[in-house]
Amino acid sequence: MTVFALIIINKAGGLVYNRTFYEGGLQKISTNDLLVLAGTFHGVHAITSRLSPVKPAQAQAQATPPTQQPPGLLTRPEPPSGLEVLETENFRLQCFNTMTGTKFLLFTDTTQANVDVVMRRVYEMYSDYVMKNPFYQLEMPIRCDMFDRKLSSYIREINNR
Ligand SMILES: *[C@@H]1O[C@H](CO)[C@@H](O)[C@H](O)[C@H]1NC(C)=O
């Protein structure tokens, strides 16, 4: 089981972090291609989140005029979720989209289990070492030593298992 790489995309679709954990995993792509990947994924994610199927309950609520709706049946719709997983024969890309629209893209091999757990831990580290860093400017490239170090040691542990 191997975690190959992580990239973080800001809410405008710009690449703010890229990191390879395992040399000899994914082929290197050029800086330009990496930026294109970030922007493209961002766009596809936005479109797929608009494609969410209408839930039966929601469709019914829309069909009933508001005045005739029984009280208590108005539920808040689920927030739409866009593209979450992209899989090829050789790797898997899992996306986690935060409430503010920052996206974490984790590249792993196709047999990696518990990607959710790994993602969660990465997000925790981001909250602790990037968000709480007073010198970090939101939406800008992430250059935080602590984040780099904690991330490295956590992923190394997984990759050496
Ligand atoms: C990828 O990360 C390296 C090291 O942090 C950085 O120097 C480089 O500019 C980044 N590449 C892009 C396209 O952001």
Give a summary of the structure in a few sentences.
The protein is α+β, with helices and mostly antiparallel strands and 161 residues long. It has one domain (3-159): Beta-Lactamase (2-Layer Sandwich). The chain is 37% helix and 17% strand.
CATH architecture: 2-Layer Sandwich
Largest pleated sheet:
5 strands, antiparallel
Question: What is the arithmetic mean of pLDDT?
Answer: 89
Distance between the termini: 8 Å
Shape: globular
Q: The CATH topology, please?
A: Beta-Lactamase
Structural class: alpha+beta
Rounded to an integer in angstroms, the radius of gyration calculated over CA atoms is: 19 Å
Amount of helix: 25-40%
Order of helices and strands: EEHHEEEHH
The domain tally reads 1
Strand content: 15-25%
Point out poorly predicted stretches.
none
CATH class category: Alpha Beta
- Spatially, the strands of the biggest sheet line up as 2-1-5-4-3
Attached small molecules: 2-acetamido-2-deoxy-beta-D-glucopyranose
Provide a count of the helices: 4
